[in-house]
Amino acid sequence: MAVKIRLARHGRTGRPSFRIVVLNHHKRRDGAYLECIGRYDPLVKDFQKSVALDLDRLRYWQSVGAQASATVKSFARRLGFRLPAKTKAPKPARKAAARPATKSGAGSAARRKKGPGPG
Question: How far apart are CA 24 and CA 3, in angstroms?
C-alpha cells in the first residue's frame, strides 16, 4: 500500500485549519486517514505556534515507506527535522562499451538495408 503524508483541510469557510495526516494515496484529501500526526493553522503569524508536528511519528512513517508532500517536508525542515537524503541508484554500464568494435560503417550500413523500402 502506497502511503502519503499530507494536509487535510478542516475548519469553516474563511477560517481554515489543517491536520497533517498519514493516509493511503487512493483516499481523498479530506477522506479517512490512518493517523493524524500534527496540525497547522495558517492564520497564526508565528510559525512555531502555527505548526505542531510529531517528528517521531513522521520519522516512523518515513521509515516504513510513506512519502511526505512538499508542504509537509517544508514544515519538517523548518522545525529542524533532517529528511533522509535521496540516493540515486548507480547507472548500469553502457552496452556499447561492452560490444566488440566493428568495422567502421559496415555494421550500421548492413542494419539500414533490411529490405525494399518506400524509396
Answer: 5
Tell me which residue has cell 492564520. Answer: 43
Domain 3-78 class in CATH:
alpha beta
Q: Block means of pLDDT (10 residues each) for the chain, length 119 residues? A: 88 92 83 89 92 91 90 91 67 66 58 64
Rounded CA-CA distance 90/106 in Å is 33
pTM: 0.66
Domain edges within the chain: 3-78
